[in-house]
Amino acid sequence: MKREQLSIKMIKMGWLLACFLIGFNYFSKGHVAREYTPDFLTMMTIVTFPSGYLAIYLIRGVVWMLSSLVNDPIAGSYNLLLSLWVLMTILGYFQWFYLIPGLFKHLKQFKK
Fold it and tell me: Which of 51, 56, 75, 52 lies closest to 65 in space, CA to CA?
């Protein structure tokens, strides 16, 4: 059992490291980062699939509402993409390490 728990911890750490490296690679570029936005969104969507889509559309909805209220285009802002990265990481972590294992545990009990 200890070996299984260690494996799960290693997978979690690897997944979080991948998310961190994607974010660090993008946000360390500074003002040049706008050129890399499609690559950033693609990588984060792959790592957090399918909850990453939910995060993207939640942020797009918030941006649409804010830009229509304030009349200020914030769609490509640094803070917006940082909040998207954080939201995608949180949703992906919850999905892969709480929701999916809970679903499999429930299905196992249902089969018995």
Answer: 75
C-beta of residue 76 within 8 angstroms of C-beta of residue 84: no
Residue 75 has pLDDT above 60, yes or no: no
Residues 56 and 91: their CA atoms lie apart, in Å, by: 11
Return d(Cα 27, Cα 29) in angstroms, integer: 5
Q: Please give the share of the chain, as a percent, with pLDDT higher than 90.
A: 30
* Mean pLDDT (whole number) for 28-38: 71
What CA–CA distance (Å, rounded) separates 13 from 9?
Answer: 6
Q: Which residues contact 54 (CB under 8 A, 6 or more apart)?
A: 91
Distance, CA of 19 to CA of 13 (rounded, Å):
10
CA 75-80-83 angle, to 5 degrees, is 150
What the block records as the tokens of 99 is 């929701």
Residues in the chain: 112
